[in-house]
Amino acid sequence: MDKKIDLCSPEMNEVVKEVREMRMKISEECGHDLYRLLAHYQEVGKRLRKTGKYKFVDPEPPAEKPVSTKSTRDEAAD
Known about the structure:
Structural class: mainly alpha
Strand content: under 5%
Mean pLDDT: 86
Oligomer: single chain
């Protein structure tokens, strides 16, 4: 039997508060710079992958865009 989690419970509010505090601390350490923040999380992800303790799902590569057969000019074909 699965235990249901009450997302509005005071305990969950504390968890959310703690997560937000940690995110703010990490952002401050990166100078609130988006690129430094991204690099930080990518590095953390690499380290966690190496441990083998966690499962990661890699995004699917983007689908190739179909090549348009439509003429780019406004001329009619012969």
